[in-house]
Specification:
three-stranded antiparallel β-sheet, 10 strands, rod-shaped
């Protein structure tokens, strides 16, 4: 059997083309070579560049004005190192809140109320509502012998002395013991 015998199949790569000889067939002449397409190496950019693709830019750094809760913020653009949060927004510590009160993870305010005995002859006691603590007493009496003083952590007494020629009066300020997330920090009680 000659060079191109029946049992011989050979592939020869010549100058980027493939020449195929089949068993039992005569070898092709140089002008009968069969060309098969060559495969191009696969790349992400269709073979146009051998450089790796450029990664996307990093996300912007968190800021206190980006409309997103990020960084050390406790709520959107407040708390942490940002401005203080208003009542009802999330907090971790009192400093996260404009009211400087954080209860159960929400900024809140302790309701403040003011009440008065009005003008009285003699003496009259006035107390904060249940669940509130007395934080201030003001003498609002008239004349030359009257007084107003705290009796306890919740009550005060307006007292008129002899020869007052006026009236006694006590005005008290009370702060709720419990914080309210819907608090009304400036409520004026009656």
């Amino acid at each position: 059997m000659g060079r191109w015998g029946r049992s011989l199949v050979a592939s020869v790569y010549l100058a980027g083309a493939t020449t195929v000889a089949c068993a039992g067939a005569a070898p092709p002449s140089d002008d009968e070579n069969i060309s098969l397409p060559t495969r191009q190496a696969a790349t992400d950019d269709g073979g146009k560049s051998s450089e790796p693709p450029t990664p996307p830019p990093p996300p912007p750094a968190p800021s206190c004005h980006d409309g997103t809760k990020n960084g050390d913020e406790t709520d959107v653009d407040c708390g942490g190192t940002c401005r203080a949060c208003t009542i009802g927004l999330a907090c971790s510590v009192a400093a996260d809140c404009s009211s400087n009160e954080c209860t159960s993870g929400k900024c809140c305010a302790k309701t403040t109320t003011t009440s008065s005995t009005g003008n009285v002859s003699g003496q009259k006691q006035i107390c904060c509502a249940a669940g509130a603590t007395l934080t201030g007493v003001k003498d609002c009496g008239h004349g030359n012998n009257h007084s107003a003083a705290a009796l306890s952590s919740t009550c005060a007494l307006a007292k008129e002395g002899s020869g007052n020629n006026g009236s006694a009066c006590a005005e008290i300020t009370c702060v709720a013991d419990v914080c309210s997330a819907a608090g009304d920090a400036g409520a004026d009680g009656g």
